[in-house]
Amino acid sequence: MTITITAFERSPDGGKGLARDMRVRWALEEVGQPYDVRLLSFRAMKEPEHLTLQPFGQIPTYEEGDLVLFESGAIIFHIAEHHAGLLPKEADARARAISWMFAALSTMEPPIVEHFVTGFLERDKSWHDERLRMVDERIRKRLGELSRRLGGADWLDGAFSAGDLLMVSVLQRIISSGILDEYPNLSAYVARGEARPAYKRAFADQLAVFRAAQKT
């Protein structure tokens, strides 16, 4: 059965690969699964047809036969569970990799997303500067903890896993702020993720969509 995912018709990330369909594209490339992409406008994302797939009107979604999934973490977990390459075979190592998936989305991502909400949507508020400083300090606390845990290792727990895929994807979102530069081992960690052939293929496909949208 052909896998179909949804993505932005005109991504707001400026072609940087930060939209969450990129994570799913990368996962599918890592496990060698072909897929189709259905592009959606912002208007189409809020219409009934898409809301039956994604009740919050977001992307990505994942369709495979009768199976419909939403939320990038859940989609990647499904992919990793059903195709070799993203989760270790050994039970304890597999459980640790899954823990890192949750850590990326539940511990690391929330303050990073908050940074951009504060920076772009609340910049006209009188308390903006103070709030942004507080958010950035929370980010630095988490990055410091992650940096100490990673140390000089290539990946979070032995071989590359879905935990690394999600963690790299989350850390990419803070690159433009300059905060990640304060943690050289984390910057190098993200660079290793971006150097993976599967990542490069996924990024090229998403970038091609962005460039095509610019021409129309």
Considering the chains and any ligands shown, give keywords for the structure.
single chain; alpha+beta; 58% helix; 4 strands; 216 residues; four-stranded mixed beta sheet
Mean pLDDT: 94
Report the principal-axis shape.
globular
The helix-strand sequence is EHEHHEEHHHHHH
The strand order across the widest sheet is 2-1-3-4
Outline the secondary-structure elements.
Layout lengths: L2 E6 L12 H11 L3 E6 L1 H4 L2 H4 L9 E4 L2 E4 L1 H11 L8 H31 L6 H23 L11 H11 L11 H12 L1 H18 L2
Parallel strand pairs: 1-2
Antiparallel strand pairs: 1-3, 3-4
Helix pairs in contact: 1-4, 1-7, 1-9, 5-6, 5-7, 7-8
Report on this structure.
The mean pLDDT is 94. The two termini are 32 Å apart. The protein contains nine helices and four strands. The protein is an alpha+beta fold. It has a four-stranded mixed β-sheet with strand order 2-1-3-4. A hairpin with a 2-residue loop joins β3 and β4 (67-70). Helix content is 58%, strand content 9%.
